[in-house]
Amino acid sequence: MKFRNVLLYNRYTSILIQETKRYAGHSKWQNIKATKQEHDTARAQIFNTLSHKMKVAVVESGNSDPNTNPKLANLVEQARKANMPMSTLKGILEKIKNVRTGESHILPMRIMKGPTLAIHILTDKLTYVKTNIAHISKKFNAKVIEPSAFSHLFDSVTFVIASKDCNLDSAMEDAIIANAIDVEEIKDESGTYFKFKSEFLHPEKVITQLKILGYTILSTENKCIPTGTVQVTEEELLNINKFKQKLTSEIREIVKIEDNIASL
Fold first, then answer.
1. What are the TACO1/YebC-like N-terminal domain coordinates in residue numbering (predicted)?
2. What is this structure's pTM?
């Protein structure tokens, strides 16, 4: 009888050990699976963000060739470094050749009764995008402010970056003809460019005139430059950065977010 009990004990002990190992193996697999899903989700978000930025680069310049569009070329390089599959990258570049042009918008928001954010949006469905932004904003105590209030907090301008075989004096004369507000010369290792200052969000007339004058349009950039800054604590800054990350990762139409936060 004692021998039988020992056999039963050993049998159940063996079963328990096997079940424990099976559970441990299952748990390990679940952890691996969950980690992979998180990685895949983050990877997909990066690819989606890069895809939208490529679209923006083409819309801004009207140029879908990475060989002559520096901003697009830089994004292609970022995609390669992020290990975007070549088939995916080629598909994006092919798709943006016939990309629809959306309109540029600025949505000013004040967060936690403190700093102001300038949310740059490129879309032809602004109401839809604003609804999605409002849904996220509620969780971070952020609200849209009136354009009149925003205009006192930021100097807003659109820059047109263009190239032409000429000097700054000639570019200044061309700026007057094109009705640009100002122009400055930019030099880097790749060459000399001219940065024309135009009406905020409406550079079309300047771009048209510059093309007539023989310029190659490389890109345009909307900038909101703060007239002053607002101090925040490290905890507040952490929360603001979470808000920004949430917006840019979930709403592809957001091009960038500028602010008037003072450096810590």
1. 27-97
2. 0.70
